[in-house]
Amino acid sequence: MSHSESLYQKLPLFLQDFLVNTKGFFLKHTRYNSNFRKELKNYIENYKTNKIAVDHEQLRGFLFAAKTSRYWNSTFEKYNINLNSEDVVSEIVKLPILSKDEVFNNYNDLITKEKGKKHYLATGGTTGQRLEIPAFLNAINKQWAIWWRYRYLHGITAKTWCGWFGGKQIVQAQQNEPPYWRINYPGRQIMFSPIHLSLKTAKHYYVQIKKRKLTLH
Asked: How many C-alpha atoms does 156 have within 13 Å on its Cβ side?
C-alpha cells in the first residue's frame, strides 16, 4: 500500500467520499477526452467492417513502438521476430511469456524511446509487488476505447451505473458496519469492498445493488 493509500484509510468517511469523487472526476476527464471519442468511433466502425485486418495492423504498430525499447529490440532479435510478416500473430507466438519479475528486473530497458508526457498507471500490489507503468495519454485513450467498444456491444453505455469489486482497499479493514462501499459519481460506480463481503454482510451489498438498480450484462 502506497503512502497516499495509507493516509486515505485514516480519513473520516466524508473525506474518503470527497477523494473518491475527486479521483473519479480526474480519471473521467483523463480517459474520456476528445481523443477517446475519436478512437472509440474508429474502433466501432472497424469492428463492423474488416475487424481482423485492422486488429493486425494495430498490433503491428504496437510491436514497432515496443521495438524502440532496448529490452524488446534485443528480444525480437533473439527470437528472430519479423514484424513485417503478413502474419504478425504467428511471429509473436515465438516469444516467451513476460513475467512480473522480468518487468521489475528490466524496468528501464522496457520503456520505449517515444517522447511525450507520461502518466503512471499502478497495479494493486496484491502479489506484494506494486508496479507503476508509464503510459502516454493517447495509449490510455485507446485502451479505454477498446473496453468501451466491448461494453457498447453488450448494451452498456456511459450512463450505466456499475458495481465495482476491485483490488484497491477503499474501506478500512477494521470497519464492521455498512457502508462497505464508496460511490464514485463521475464514474457512475458503486465501489464495493470485496474484503468485507461475507455471509453476514452480503445482505447489505444486495440491498445496495437493488437500490442502485445494478443489472447483470
From this structure: 14
Cell 508509464 belongs to which residue? 134
Query: Is 36 in contact with 141 (CB distance < 8 Å)?
Result: yes
Domain residues for the domain of 188 are 1-29+158-217
**Residues 180, 204: Cα–Cα separation, whole Å:** 8
Same domain, 25 and 37: no
In whole angstroms, what is the distance from residue 51 CA to residue 137 CA? 24
Statement to judge: residues 148 and 215 lie in one domain: no
Question: Closest Cα to residue 115, out of 65, 160, 149?
Answer: 65
- What is the mean pLDDT of the segment spanning 30-40? 94
Q: pTM of the full predicted structure?
A: 0.80
Q: Which long-range contacts (CB under 8 A, 24 or more apart) does 126-132 make?
A: 126/167, 127/100, 129/100, 129/104, 130/2, 131/100, 131/103, 131/104
Q: Are residues 41 and 117 in the same domain?
A: yes
Residue with the larger pLDDT of the pair 50 and 154:
154
Among all chains, which residue has been given the C-alpha cell 458496519? 177
Closest CA to 143 of 48, 58, 54, 46: 58
In tens, the pLDDT along 153-164 reads 888 998 999 999
